[in-house]
Amino acid sequence: MKTKYNKSEIMKKAWAIHRSKWQYASNFSMCLKRAWDIAKESIEYEAKQAAAKEWENRPKVKVELTKEQKEACYQAKLAFMASLYSTGVYSGD
User: Fold this and answer.
1) Cα distances (angstroms) measured from residue 44 to each of 14, 17, 19, 33
2) CB within 8 A of 13, min separation 6: which ones?
């Protein structure tokens, strides 16, 4: 079973945080907790990036409407607009 987290990198990150002047770096346990949080967030971020890339690379489907379908759609839009203006009430345009 492959592990998701590189524990060596997490420990290196924890020590780097501990050596820094971060305000919460007073004890090593806080630094280790922060390093684990960073590792978990980076795994989630990479998963989201991979999903977004997969979504962008999906095959595109283009639907062509026939002339009759386009005309029916246009007539439906006209009927809707006519129903709004036929009441004689101000519609905010």
Assistant:
1) 19, 21, 26, 17
2) 35, 38, 39
- pTM of whole model > 0.70? no
Cβ 13 vs Cβ 32: under 8 Å: no
How far is the C-alpha of 15 from the C-alpha of 82, rounded, in Å? 70
Question: In this model, does residue 7 exceed pLDDT 60?
Answer: yes
Over 70: is that where the pLDDT of 19 sits?
yes
Residue 49's domain comprises: 7-56
Residue 70, domain member (yes or no): no
- Tell me the per-residue pLDDT of 29-71, one tens digit each, with 9 for 90 and over: 999 999 999 999 999 999 999 999 999 998 888 888 899 999 9
Q: Which DSSP state fits 60? A: P
Contact 43, 36 (CB under 8 A): no
Per the domain annotation, does 46 fall within a domain? yes
Whether residue 27 lies inside any domain: the answer is yes
